[in-house]
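Components:
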Amino acid sequence: MAQARRKERIDRGIKVRSDSIYALSSWEEIAYLLGPRALLIGGFLLLPVVLLPSPYWSRVALSVCVVALLAVSFDFLANFVGLVSLGGAFFYGIGGYMAAVASTELGLPPVVAIPAGTVLGAAVCTLLLVPCLPLRGIYFAIITLMYPLFMTRLIEATEILGGTEGFRGITGFSSRWTEQYGLIVVTLAGVFALRRFLAEDAGLVIRAVKDNDQAVRASGINVTWTKAKAVFVAALFGCFAGAYYVHMYRNVGISSFALDLSIMPIAATVIGGSGTLVGPLIGALLLVPLSELLRDFGSLRIVVYALVLTGFVVLQSEGLMNFATRKYQQFERWVRV
Amino acid sequence: MLTADGLMVFYENMLALNNISLRCDEGQVVGVFGANSAGKSTLMYTLSGIILDIRHKEKMRGGERISLFGDVHYRGEAIGELKANQRARRGIVLCPERRRLFPESSVLENLKIGAYLASRDEARETLGYVLELFPPLKKLLKRAAGFLSGGEQQMVAIGRALMAQPKLLLLDEPLLGLAPSVQQVVVEAIPVIRDQRGISVIVTEQYARPVMPHVDYAYILENGSTVLEGTRDELLDNPDVKSAYFGC
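Structure:
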């Protein structure tokens, strides 16, 4: 027993000191607090500049943002609201089609068509999902998985919304810089806004619904209404991704409802760290370029990221972000018991 | 039969069990008493091996690090690293706190699930024994366990543990949330189980008053440490115990 030792985890001094805003007394502490955020924001903002020589990789950077938005939306629903959504593609597709209709049929410029597609699309998604919100369990997951398939077949069979052709000739962006910075800035702003939202009282109620919906109901709060609002917020993220992407490629088709768009974000969330909101961003930043690099392997690349995903679930299920946060905030040492 | 030496359990940096040593001989009923946060449940998790599972899960999801120290010996074999299912095979069966029944299964199904480790004959025999021990269950066999009253659920939980053919039964807070009259029924079953089946019992409780008369030896925990231990009569005579647990 004398030699028994255990590894102890202790908060770093600087973390404890900078935890309270009143204690910020040196540049070091300010840097400790802002450093990671600055790194993330600065890194994303530099992407278009760094990737300037390669239009291909610039487009990949935007795909990263699109997957990140869908992943954040998944993470928010799954780990803060308690609704597992398997239908990122549904949000994405609805947002895309809404924006396409706004642009081609109504002739609206991107500045109007994208926000309109986002908000209207989110409203439509929420309305379609409301019926299964009072239920607990896997119903939400099933419904969200079914809707994209349903939409694809519906469009194919009834030839509505341009049928299999989709819409073409959507107005593009005025310049490459607007195109890139528009998406990157909104992605970052969205993630940080969502974090702030969850820290507010409204976010507290949402998280409480996940923990114990009966207790929330007993406090006189309408759980279904709260969930509906949360779904609307999540749908905003997904629909914006769709609406923006449609304007980038200037066309939309039933491939907007592809299963890939539901699966990639989930993989990004698992890799980045569930329940962190920033983690999915980082997961997307790793996974999307990886999948582009593997494009030569054709459909074998699905195998690769299935393996990556399985490896993370089995070996490192907390995800990168949780792991990094712990290392950043705490150190370990051996102590005698 | 079972000895634990110098058990220490840390939840991250919080010490939940501090150098606990405990001993339960063949055919004994051992009581472990203490308030909330004394470490009773952690002790039961450690003896039954559930803690290894909790530790693994916490590690996987990046939660609290659980550190375990000390030895547990069962019939001369060191079982500190054995998983809960391996310990159950050797006869250490836990009846968990808050009962943890399968709420959507019927009472009969709950009991049968408990008999997974038993042979067909043993299961049939033990089922008869459980119904004899807790006659109210006879009429409830087809009912979903989740809809029973607290007392009936506790009877099912103990019955389910008995179905696994334990040699050492760990009862974690069997009186939790029960009315005093029901408490008596449950408590009085403990010495009966010991006498008729030859099963040793370790029972933890906050309420020493109903349980103390039925134990042979008892430990009193406070904040993870043993503050007092002794035979039933020693403890009943102890003025501190009297004032703390019997209010006189």
